[in-house]
Automatic annotation (TrEMBL):
It comes from the Bacteria. Residues 78-365 form the PRISE-like Rossmann-fold domain. SUPFAM superfamilies: NAD(P)-binding Rossmann-fold domains. InterPro entries: NAD(P)-bd_dom_sf, PRISE-like_Rossmann-fold. This is NAD dependent epimerase/dehydratase. Pfam families: PRISE.
């Protein structure tokens, strides 16, 4: 895909700051930008130094003086926000996560040079925050971008408002991207269904436990969709470089739909195990894996794995939230397709590609 960044932006129009570069979303957009020949600065509290082509920037988004110091020499043309911090209440989520976005624009020495800023949020835009997740009247599906905001506190809304304010102040274009559950490679990520299910399947194979789908009957039986992190990166890049993506919010999913009762046996087959019969009710994966830290250490030692800490690979609480939804979740991406985005990703490959990489990186046996 060729870039249509305005020529007036000059050479600096290919300099990106990826905020949250070590997460699933950040790693994938950073890799995409590097492959496109961009200069990429990856910001994180604990940046990785092994991301090919990414220049690490260490900073705490909530510490404005240190953030200002860390960004003092950077004059990016594009900013990609791929980070959030979970707090105890949604009120604190709103305050903290919007402050992180505002602080970046305050800390940048010349925000007026920005061409575009992209923010990744998600389906909680339509389903509500974790403390009231998918409660109340069922949302109308498929989710569409023109749906009104829920009458609830939601840190996604505060993040959007912070982005809109900065865009109006500094004159850059913006885009907001709303993925469903993101499947992709990352270690130590707070929301990582793919690697969580890989850990779960590995434990079931090693112990003979039944590989039970932990979600709700609705999720087991109904149609749903997911977002490969590579598909999200494709849309982020498109919206940031093409006129059709500017000043818009877009849903982003793979482009296919499936039922978990169809996909679950296929995931089991990859690990060489049988899928257990669905019990007809949700089963907490967080409780199932709660006592398995020492077991994972033993598995890690047995196979010489690179990560012995189960909490670095599995985020069962988040997988429970996603798979435990009592409502149908189907997403419409017609808006970006009509605007020119043509990306597609086959969902079973999202999982098997991830599992293959986890094995190659010696994170699962």
């Amino acid at each position: 895909m060729t870039s249509s960044v305005p020529a007036s932006a000059g050479v600096s129009a290919r300099i990106a700051l990826v905020v949250g570069a070590t997460g699933i979303v950040g790693q994938n957009i950073a890799a995409r930008l590097v492959a496109e020949g961009w200069t990429v600065h990856g910001l994180a509290r604990r940046p990785r130094h092994d991301m090919a082509g990414v220049l690490p920037v260490e900073a705490d988004l909530l510490d404005l003086p240190s953030l200002t110091h860390a960004l003092r020499d950077l004059r990016p043309s594009h900013v990609f926000f791929c980070s959030w911090l979970r707090q105890d209440t949604e009120e604190e989520n709103c305050r903290v996560n919007s402050a992180m976005i505002r602080n970046v624009f305050v800390a940048l020495p010349e925000p007026g040079l920005l061409v575009h800023a992209a923010l990744t949020t998600g389906m909680k835009h339509y389903l509500g925050p974790f403390e009231s997740y998918a409660s109340g009247a069922p949302p109308v599906t498929p989710f569409r971008e023109d749906a009104p905001r829920l009458d609830l506190l939601n840190f996604y809304y505060d993040q959007e408002d912070a982005l809109y304010e900065a865009a109006a102040q500094h004159g850059f274009s913006w885009s907001v991207h709303r993925p469903h559950t993101v499947i992709g490679y990352a270690v130590g990520n707070a929301m990582n269904m793919g690697s969580t299910l890989a850990v779960y399947a590995t434990i079931c194979r090693e112990t003979g436990r039944p590989f039970v789908f932990p979600g709700s009957p609705v999720q087991w039986n109904a149609l749903t969709d997911l977002t490969d992190a590579r598909q999200l990166a494709r849309q982020l890049f498109w919206a940031s470089t093409e006129a059709g993506g500017r000043n818009q919010a877009f849903n982003i999913v793979n482009g296919d739909v499936f039922r978990w009762k169809w996909l679950w046996p296929r995931l089991a087959e990859w690990f060489g195990i049988e899928a257990a019969p669905y019990p007809g009710h949700a089963t907490s994966l967080e409780e199932t894996l709660a006592g398995d830290a020492e077991l994972w250490e033993r598995i890690s030692t047995k196979y010489g794995l690179a990560e012995s800490r189960i909490e670095r690979l599995a985020s069962a609480w988040h997988t429970d939230a996603d798979l435990g939804r009592p409502v149908e979740c189907v997403t419409d991406i017609s808006k970006s397709r009509l605007a020119g985005f043509t990306g597609y990703q086959y969902t079973p490959d999202s999982f098997t590609d991830l599992f293959t990489r986890l094995r190659a990186e010696k994170l699962i046996p």
